[in-house]
């Protein structure tokens, strides 16, 4: 019994510590105040805990719910939309409704699944590139702060890959405390939720909501289903899409973005490391969810640490957390020679930062790559 409990708590720690900086950076880039960013992190932890625990208990399957890390990276590299954070929240709500639509109308979900993996992966790689360059920039600008973080990450990759990013987070906090310090960032404060009245702008709808939904589906939900299936667990998509979509909608009003099926932490909870008996592994998913509820209590401290730290250092930690995702996305994007040129066009347009009419580069990357793919499609023989 102890094995799945410890593995579940480990999965929660890895899931939170390895990517909370990305999530907070995304909120801040969207124009959120420190209070709104903290509220968004708290509500995401609550949703992950409540939904994951509910699914695990009802289905007796080790289901892990996570925030959309690729979605957070998209937000972090998009820049604040016209209308500021309320417009971003409007986009979060629209993306949540798209998740609900995917659950209610199966043809819509199938249409998303038919987006070529190379194009979706290339868009994700373009979204991630700028943040993944941050560790290099930080070493150049803040070597006394960034070098210990990067070297710790590299050393832990050699010793214990799973702990590489959490260890880098710990070292980042340590160098801040022993260096410039964290004014106002050290004391525990109870979690607070802040209501955000949304506003709706066309640029945010097209440039944030649609790409956020697509990267969440392609990079989180579909791999999450695949991880569960690979371990012998077959679940229905509709309840997951409906529950995570409805939860994300309610959480969006408190500053949160999307929640979805986990992939990496799902592999921890669903694999044989959790328990030799597959029928007992749901306990790992349940305790991982309890772990996220616990992290909701310290989200205010995490947000205040990020607010007090040099932004470039936080971006560097986020970039380290996303390097593996960038490598995986590039591998998929360039793996099929026939898709290589449309994929690389998607990648460079997305990475360029192009913004037209208030619509961000992720959308234009999809348009450019998808359009070129259609143009290069072989003519059917008559």
Descriptive overview:
The chain is an all-alpha fold and 382 residues long. The chain has one domain (2-186, 194-376). It has helices at residues 2-17, 20-29, 34-59, 69-78, 84-104, 106-113, 117-141, 143-159, 164-178, 202-230, 237-252, 264-270, 282-308, 311-335, 340-352, 361-376; strands spanning 65-67, 259-261. It has a two-stranded antiparallel sheet. The N and C termini lie far apart (64 Å). The mean pLDDT is 85.
Main attributes?
mainly alpha, two-stranded antiparallel sheet
Give the topology, please.
Layout: H1 2-17, H2 20-29, H3 34-59, E1 65-67, H4 69-78, H5 84-104, H6 106-113, H7 117-141, H8 143-159, H9 164-178, H10 202-230, H11 237-252, E2 259-261, H12 264-270, H13 282-308, H14 311-335, H15 340-352, H16 361-376
Short description:
The protein is mainly α and 382 residues long. It has helices spanning 2-17, 20-29, 34-59, 69-78, 84-104, 106-113, 117-141, 143-159, 164-178, 202-230, 237-252, 264-270, 282-308, 311-335, 340-352, 361-376, and strands at residues 65-67, 259-261. The chain has 16 helices and two strands.
